[in-house]
Amino acid sequence: MPNWTYDAKDYNPDGHFTPIxxxxxxxxxxxxxxxxxxxxxxxxxxxxxVSGKKNKLWFYIVFPYPEDMNYPKKKQMxxxxxxEVWESFNIPVGEMNVLNxxxxxxxxxxxxxxxxxxxxxxxxxxxxxxxxxxxxxxxWQEPDGDxxxxxxxxxxxxxxxxxxxx
Length: 166
Hints:
Elements: E1 23-36, E2 42-50, E3 55-62, H1 71-88, E4 105-114, E5 121-128, H2 131-134, E6 152-155
Parallel strand pairs: 3-6
Antiparallel strand pairs: 1-2, 1-4, 2-3, 4-5
């Protein structure tokens, strides 16, 4: 049996997912990995921290197969996402080693959307801000310990759901 002292102030009966208000935020790439989508496509899975918050966001960049009948449109979407990440996080254009992306700070427009499975509101990344558009944002801040910024796990799907068949 674990040696544990329960602290009731850490318990939130309404859950621990508190979406942040929509807006522009500095975000830091905490995790970056190469993986596969459910359909078997190569994919980058990025995990972000939000400046001054305990919130996490996820973002997926899926690489379509050239044989896909919608390849031209999907190729353009993938290149747009890559270009936004490289620009926003000051990553050299063409850098495909996602391990080198970890720790980089950029910015994103965060939105709220309805999670169709849970019926709850969640945050998602709408798009990444260019460095020029980030200039008015406050500098990166580590997450605070304030209970009002409870941690959350929200998925930002980059408008590409990795479970989709592509």
